[in-house]
């Protein structure tokens, strides 16, 4: 059974940093791209970042480029998102998502429950 | 960026009746090399993670009831629920994965009439 469990969320002040992690199981982690998708309170879904399964190529939404860094540790089946210079508009539930293939150019077939990040003073 | 526009924003359908959701992309998401439309549909219920329903515009995900179907090509797509059930009350999103940044539609809320 595919499972993904996010951790590392919480309350942070504007300008602060957080590191999200996603522990994956139930599939061969290195064979799939992985992504982060967020949903701000009362808003729709927003793709944040993705990383391919093979080359580790990374991609970012313009809204987070230069502030967020996605990474993966295939030996530990873990996906991470380092978030720096956080802003109030980054407040959202962040979902870890498994892509349907090794390339990021694929749908999201499994999603984690999500973890709340709140940026507020 | 590719803009995904869904319509309607919400709809109320009687149990057992058909629900139709439209999604229009600002540019084609049909990749000529593999003739696939890079378009997915997701269902989102409160307190639950999004659930993949349809990918490549018309391929139903394993385990998804066959009352859900996707159609369309290029820039115009449709998600159809052929016979609405109570458990289908949710918000539905289309999403393109043709080019970065990947983008979602604004969502369509489906309710029971």
Descriptive account of the structure:
The complex is a heterodimer of chains A (121) and B (113). Chain A is mainly beta and 121 residues long. Chain A contains no helices and 11 strands. Chain A has strands at 3-7, 10-12, 18-25, 34-39, 45-51, 58-60, 68-73, 78-83, 92-99, 108-111, 115-119. In chain A, a hairpin with an 8-residue loop joins strand 9 (92-99) and strand 10 (108-111). Chain A is globular and about 40 Å long. By secondary structure, chain B is an all-beta fold. Chain B has no helices and 13 strands. Chain B has strands at residues 4-7, 10-13, 19-25, 30-31, 36-37, 39-44, 51-55, 59-60, 68-73, 76-81, 90-96, 103-104, 108-112. In chain B, the strands form 3 sheets. In chain B, strands 2, 6, 7, 8, 11, 12 and 13 form a 7-stranded mixed sheet that branches. A 4-stranded antiparallel sheet of chain B has the order 1-3-10-9, with no helix packed on it. The chains are: A mainly beta (121), B mainly beta (113). The interface between A and B is medium-sized, with 23 and 24 residues.
Summary, kept brief:
The complex is a heterodimer of chains A (121) and B (113). Helix content of chain A is 0%, strand content 50%. Chain A is mostly beta strands and 121 residues long.
Give me the secondary-structure topology:
The complex is a heterodimer of chains A (121) and B (113).
Chain A: E1 3-7, E2 10-12, E3 18-25, E4 34-39, E5 45-51, E6 58-60, E7 68-73, E8 78-83, E9 92-99, E10 108-111, E11 115-119
Parallel strand pairs in A: 2-11
Antiparallel strand pairs in A: 1-3, 3-8, 4-5, 4-9, 5-6, 7-8, 9-10, 9-11
Chain B: E1 4-7, E2 10-13, E3 19-25, E4 30-31, E5 36-37, E6 39-44, E7 51-55, E8 59-60, E9 68-73, E10 76-81, E11 90-96, E12 103-104, E13 108-112
Parallel strand pairs in B: 2-13
Antiparallel strand pairs in B: 1-3, 3-10, 4-5, 6-7, 6-11, 7-8, 9-10, 11-12, 11-13
């Amino acid at each position: 059974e595919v499972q993904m469990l996010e951790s590392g969320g919480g309350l942070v002040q504007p300008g602060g940093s957080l590191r999200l992690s996603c522990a994956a199981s139930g599939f061969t982690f290195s064979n799939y791209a992985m992504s982060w998708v967020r949903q701000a309170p009362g808003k729709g879904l927003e793709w944040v970042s993705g990383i391919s399964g093979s080359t580790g190529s990374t991609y970012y939404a313009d809204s987070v480029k230069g502030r967020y860094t996605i990474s993966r540790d295939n030996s530990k089946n873990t996906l991470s998102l380092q978030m720096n210079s956080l802003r109030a508009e980054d407040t959202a539930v962040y979902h870890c998502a498994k892509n349907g293939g090794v390339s990021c150019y694929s749908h999201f077939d499994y999603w984690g429950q999500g973890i709340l990040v709140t940026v507020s003073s | 960026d590719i803009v995904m526009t869904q319509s309607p924003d919400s709809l109320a359908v009687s149990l057992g009746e058909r629900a139709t959701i439209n999604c229009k992309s600002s540019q084609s998401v049909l990749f000529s090399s593999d003739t696939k439309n890079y378009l997915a549909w997701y269902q989102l219920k409160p307190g639950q993670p999004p659930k993949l329903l349809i990918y490549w515009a018309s391929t139903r995900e394993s385990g998804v009831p066959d009352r859900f179907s996707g159609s369309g090509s290029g820039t115009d797509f449709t998600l159809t629920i052929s016979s609405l059930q109570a458990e289908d009350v949710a918000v539905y999103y289309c999403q393109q994965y043709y080019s970065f940044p990947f983008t979602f539609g604004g969502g369509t809320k489906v309710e029971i009439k």
